[in-house]
Automatic annotation (TrEMBL):
It comes from Pseudaquabacterium terrae. It comes from the Bacteria. Residues 120-175 form the Cupin type-2 domain. Pfam families: Cupin_2. This is Cupin domain-containing protein. Residues 50-75 are annotated as: Disordered. CDD domains: cupin_BLL6423-like.
Length: 192
């Protein structure tokens, strides 16, 4: 199963302050993660400051793929996630450095020999993950939750993975917001 391409409309202002369409069409940055065939990142937009400048600037999604949001910024993307396979689960941990490197954040991977899934990772951000189509299992250090279309995960910088055990692709929408760990949490994570 293939999902339809994402259609993006970006608005802006003309010289008189009137609202106009700045761009209307496909996303300029769509990247398949080579180490995990079928995993496709569809980069929609990002902001690089808080408050976000409301301007007519250039498209911030062109350039290399980056997993986390920019410092003091946000990122919105769709991700198509293929079903987990026996081969991936058996050899996935060995390929994760390559996968996270291609996604722009090799340091995000937290996978260890005893990890519950080979895609375990963590970013210092608040991420909203919404299942659009298909099913996904959120895997944490302690526990799992089955997600279906309409499920929303508020991911608060925890160690996690997305396991697709459904046998068919899943499309999720992610909105990532730069964050900073509360000092007690940062101290606990430093000891892990």
């Amino acid at each position: 199963m293939t999902f339809p391409p994402i259609h993006r409309v970006v608005t802006g202002h003309d010289a008189d302050g009137r609202a106009v369409v700045s761009s209307d069409g496909p996303l300029p940055t769509v990247v398949e993660i080579q180490a995990i065939p079928g995993t496709v990142f569809h980069e929609v937009w990002e902001t690089r400051a808080t408050p976000a400048p409301v301007d007519n600037g250039s498209d911030p999604t062109t350039g290399p793929l980056k997993l986390p949001p920019p410092k003091q910024g946000t990122r919105i993307r769709f991700v198509d996630i293929p079903p987990d396979t026996e081969d991936f689960l058996a050899k996935g941990a060995a390929r994760m450095k390559d996968a996270f490197t291609q996604a722009g954040d090799a340091a995000a991977s937290t996978v260890r020999r005893d990890s519950p899934h080979p895609l375990m990772h963590r970013t210092e951000s608040i991420d909203y993950g919404i299942v659009i189509d298909g099913e996904m299992t959120l895997v944490l250090d302690d526990g799992e939750v089955l997600l279906k279309p309409g499920s929303v995960v508020v991911q608060r910088g925890t160690n996690h993975a997305w396991a697709n055990r459904s046998g068919r692709p899943c499309r999720m929408l992610f909105v990532l917001v730069d964050g900073a760990y509360e000092p007690a949490i940062a101290a606990a994570l430093a000891g892990r």
